[in-house]
Amino acid sequence: MDPLVSDPRIEAAAEGTVEPAADPTLDTVSEPAVEAEAAVPVLCPACGTVNDPDAKFCEECGTQLGELVEVSSDPDSGDDEAGAEPNESTSSTSAPRRACVYCGGSIAEDGYCELCGKPAQSERDHWQEAPAAWVGGVCDRGIRHDINEDAMALAADPQAGEFAVLVVCDGVSSTPGSDKASLAAARAATAHLAAGRQIDVTEGNDDELAQSRWSDRMLEAGERASAAIYEAIGELAARTNPPSCTFAAAVIDGPLVVVGGVGDSRVYWIADSGKSRQLTTDDSWSQEMMAHGMSRQQAESAPQAHSITRWLGADSPDEAPHVVPTYPTGAGWILVCSDGLWNYCSDADDLAELVHRVVGMVGSNPVQVSSSLVDWANEQGGQDNITAALARFDSVVHTPAQPA
Fold it and tell me: Are 56 and 64 in contact (CB under 8 A)?
């Protein structure tokens, strides 16, 4: 097994386990900082809010703070490669500019792209992660919402099919501050699940033990995510309607996949051939109606369709994820997504057809496939934030362990 590299975003417990996606622009969980001689608070140029010295985005309005990274003249380099570090060699006299996420052009001082004319997006509005060549995802604000309350966090072993964690959280849009809740929850859960890999390697991996261990770990990840929300939102936790989010997670440990869910973000098994399946069960009004005999089309098109019955947050009635272990057969994809994607294509077989069509056009790179799925959802209207995270799952013949 190749050596595994840790990331400062993933908490100390995960050190030395798997390599999470590098994302310097969105980093909020940091290692102990070297004390600066003069830590000066950062004033937001848009709204005037005073932010912490190391803040990357304004806590009040979300505007990007601090230095901007110089962009290459090559349009293809507009989106930073996943895992790329900021260019420390940039001269202080070189007038650094941000890259346009649409075309790779330079963002002018007025906040619009000099090449295509579109307004700049912050990295919180749109970003991608690729912790390994076989795992990747894209998180996007969509078209209709002013801010991106979706979040994701990914981690993976470089060896395809060995080990991966994919977590997607969707902030509840009716509660201000849910963008902070979702990001904190996704990162905390991924950190805890990634740390479990070390236990897996140490204790062995018989079927019953692995399923039990990862099921317990998934429940603990929900608890860690909830605790991270409390810490991230501070005094907002005391509100009548505090920030909250959904939770969908998948752990891939060789042939075993363990999924967990709270709310209506989902995990799907997208088979290359044969039957695709939704692996999680929604906590929602529409799911309850379908359980009582209403058709999927009727339930998911009703006005109350996206009313969730469980969530993560200070006022949650039950934060424990529903956990399901499974052994997919054949080759395919594990897809973790928010309702911004599945709302336009809910049925597993229909979603599989969409994924197959996209793969036929752009190839099997998980980030490119995720990006195309996000683009497709925006073409359907982009009514919500959209997140798609994928892991390639090649054919594995699973032989159950025999009792000693």
Answer: yes
